[in-house]
């Protein structure tokens, strides 16, 4: 059993022969070992939705048989016959889960959603049956107790398995185990329902613009994207503003129609909170109650204490301390920003009092006034394809990677492209799949997945990673232009991919991004810094019409405006992280999500001119799985690390310093979870992280 469940579908692929008892699975292409080049690739061209449920069922049966065989082994427990055997188990489930996860997350249809609803509780029950297996845990515990004779990496794997099983309830009484398993199944169903409700609101609400007045203020690239989105939905000649962040943010930034900005804003921020069949508030209440009950059974005061224990922060109090150190500076900066915006609004004499749907619009006016910087003038230099080339080039400079497009592998959708990644010596490293565009049935946002994790313990297995986004596809032949913020997001998510591609470990459960939640964002946020380097901008920030590089004076303006709108950006994010933690520190309190959000934000002094980045009824990080629950603070924790780490490059001679890049690779990017994250960081930096680099970057006081 690997480090992830079928639902996340991103663990390593081990090469085990199919067990004879499951020969009937050969008829289902989703269960077969991957074939083809590059060590085998996912058979996306053979997918039928009708195959998902039987494939998942068959994979669970095979994994149960593999676990039973480990438990039935008469030989004394050893690393090889227990932990290495577990690393080999579940290969079929990993293969099926990868494809199932892609269809659930990016190609969802009513038929796929029906499979999700039916299978989520069954998959949760299957995982609990393994995690709570007393015979299996006895063998794991025996290996863990005798770990002194193992290699450091094997010791780390023994600790990982022992910790995971204990935290899942391996030491509980039989009745308590049964209740935890029941809770997990209930939660799995609720997570699925939450996600599907949100997807419905994002899909069903589209604003169609038809007149020039309605388009007022929108730059040409935003209009072109909206026209393409409308035509794709059967509204040729109109302009569609979708209910997704990548469509909403440009509209709120540039539309001069305040009434439409308000309409779009209210629609977007009421997702999951409309009192209808897709309302998520009742689901959230159930999730919070079940999480609180599970934490108590497992011996923790709250769900937050259970979730944060294995992270770098160790306690929710430590995470709260960091957030509350930053919070006063963030809201003080918001007050300054609002004052600047209100002054401009007052000169227009339209009676505008800055509201949430005005923030981005008037912030751009302030940017132009203070820094003579119009971000709409930057966008023509930020072509999606050129930025992709820039990411690849920077990765080559830092890690020696080269990226070559390949067409000999199947893809899940025609918009997806695939690239072979090679090391400096020409050796194959892995594959990188890129799925950049929004479409019906695709969840919003941007993310990275691992289709296969790197490992060496059973022979070299190379990784397959993907980056996914939701850019609005332009008209045929037209380049897709992205905002500066979206360009940073591209580099961020590619940083996760690089974490996977650099991995050089033996065991898949310790590979790549399989690290603590508040550490996994560190390599990705660190990678954002290379976007703004002159080497990338001069080569790849090229005007889509003239081909000329972005002017030096425009780059200088961007750099001078670096701390502009940090109040909004930090407060928008941090308010979500604080509410997440407060919700999960509340224990089994009877919580009304809307009222709790409103009341706690008031206590925090949340500025009324902006919302949380993720309001509670649409907070997928927290309520579509346990993933970032009581863990959204992780982005701040990791950002402290990333700014401190990038200063090491600056101190050493610059972003492309070869010695520092090698040190980053050797101590962090290549080691996965084989070394404790705190020790990784000390090995890289020579000390613990210092929050002052983060505060300096935001323009906040460091004293």
TrEMBL record:
The keyword Metal-binding applies. The keyword Endoplasmic reticulum does not apply. Gene3D superfamilies: Collagenase (Catalytic Domain) (3.40.390.10), Neurolysin, domain 3 (1.10.1370.10). PROSITE patterns: TAT. InterPro entries: M3A_DCP (IPR034005), MetalloPept_cat_dom_sf (IPR024079), Neurolysin/TOP_dom2 (IPR024077), Pept_M3A_M3B (IPR045090), Pept_M3A_M3B_dom (IPR001567), TAT_signal (IPR006311). Its cofactor is Zn(2+). It comes from the Bacteria. Binds 1 zinc ion. Pfam families: Peptidase_M3 (PF01432). Keywords: Hydrolase, Metal-binding, Metalloprotease, Protease, Signal, Zinc. Residues 251-699 form the Peptidase M3A/M3B catalytic domain. Residues 1-23 form the signal peptide. Belongs to the peptidase M3 family. This is M3 family metallopeptidase.
């Amino acid at each position: 059993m690997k480090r992830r469940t079928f639902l996340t579908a991103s663990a390593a692929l081990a090469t085990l022969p199919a067990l004879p008892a499951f020969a009937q699975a050969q008829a289902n292409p989703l269960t077969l070992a991957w074939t083809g080049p590059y060590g085998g690739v996912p058979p996306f061209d053979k997918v039928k939705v009708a195959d998902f449920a039987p494939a998942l069922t068959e994979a669970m049966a095979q994994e149960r048989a593999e676990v039973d065989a480990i438990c039935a082994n008469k030989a004394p427990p050893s690393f090889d016959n227990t932990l290495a055997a577990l690393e080999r188990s579940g290969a079929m489930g990993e293969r099926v889960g990868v494809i199932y996860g892609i269809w659930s997350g990016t190609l969802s249809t009513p038929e796929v959603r029906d499979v999700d609803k039916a299978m989520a509780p069954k998959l949760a029950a299957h995982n609990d049956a393994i995690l709570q297996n007393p015979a299996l845990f006895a063998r794991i515990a025996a290996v863990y107790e005798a770990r002194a004779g193992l290699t450091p990496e094997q010791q780390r794997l023994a600790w990982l398995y022992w910790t995971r099983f204990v935290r899942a309830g391996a030491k509980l009484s039989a009745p308590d185990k049964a209740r935890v398993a029941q809770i997990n199944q209930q939660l799995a169903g609720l997570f699925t329902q939450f996600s599907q409700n949100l997807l419905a609101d994002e899909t069903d609400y589209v604003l169609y613009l038809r007149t020039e007045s309605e388009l007022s203020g929108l730059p040409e690239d935003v209009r072109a994207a909206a026209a393409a989105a409308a035509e794709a939905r059967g509204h040729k000649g109109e302009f569609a503003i979708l209910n997704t962040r990548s469509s909403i943010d440009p509209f709120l930034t540039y539309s001069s129609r305040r009434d439409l900005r308000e309409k779009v804003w209210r629609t977007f921020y009421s997702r999951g909170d409309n009192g209808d069949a897709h309302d998520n508030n009742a689901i959230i209440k159930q999730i919070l109650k079940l999480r609180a009950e599970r934490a108590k059974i497992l011996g923790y005061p709250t769900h937050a204490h259970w979730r944060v224990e294995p992270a770098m922060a160790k306690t929710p109090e430590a995470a709260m301390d960091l957030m509350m150190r930053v919070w006063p500076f963030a809201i003080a900066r918001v007050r300054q920003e609002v004052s600047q915006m209100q002054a401009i609004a007052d000169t227009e004499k339209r009676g505008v009092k800055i509201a949430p749907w005005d923030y981005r619009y008037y912030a751009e006016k302030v940017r132009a006034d203070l820094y003579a910087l119009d971000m709409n003038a930057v966008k023509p230099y930020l072509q999606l394809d050129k930025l992709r080339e820039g990411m690849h080039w920077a990765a080559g400079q830092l890690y020696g990677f080269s990226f070559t497009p390949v067409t000999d592998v199947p893809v899940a959708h025609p918009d997806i492209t695939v690239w072979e990644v090679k090391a400096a010596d020409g050796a194959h490293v892995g594959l990188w799949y890129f799925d950049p565009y929004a479409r019906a049935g695709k969840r919003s946002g941007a993310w990275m997945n691992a289709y296969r994790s790197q490992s060496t313990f059973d022979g070299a297995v190379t990784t397959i990673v993907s980056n996914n986004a939701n850019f609005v596809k332009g008209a045929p032949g037209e380049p897709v232009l992205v905002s500066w913020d979206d360009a940073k997001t591209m580099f961020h998510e590619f940083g996760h991919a690089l974490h996977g591609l650099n991995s050089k470990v033996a065991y898949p459960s310790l590979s790549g991004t399989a690290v603590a939640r508040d550490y996994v964002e560190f390599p990705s946020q660190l990678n954002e810094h290379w976007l703004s380097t002159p080497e990338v901008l001069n080569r790849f920030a090229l005007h889509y019409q003239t081909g000329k590089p972005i002017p030096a004076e425009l780059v200088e303006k961007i750099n001078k405006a670096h701390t502009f709108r940090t109040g909004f950006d930090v407060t928008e994010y941090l308010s979500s992280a604080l509410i997440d933690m407060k919700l999960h520190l509340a224990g089994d309190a009877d919580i009304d999500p809307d009222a709790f959000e409103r009341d706690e934000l008031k206590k925090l002094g949340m500025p009324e001119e902006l919302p949380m980045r993720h309001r509670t009824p649409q907070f997928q990080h927290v309520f579509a799985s346990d993933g970032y629950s009581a863990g959204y603070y992780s982005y701040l924790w990791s950002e402290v690390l990333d700014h401190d780490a990038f200063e090491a490059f600056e101190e050493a001679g610059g972003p492309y310093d070869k010695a520092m890049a090698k040190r980053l690779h050797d101590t962090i990017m290549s080691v996965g979870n084989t070394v404790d994250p705190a020790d990784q960081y000390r090995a890289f930096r020579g000390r613990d992280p210092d929050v002052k680099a983060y505060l300096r970057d935001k323009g906040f006081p460091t004293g």
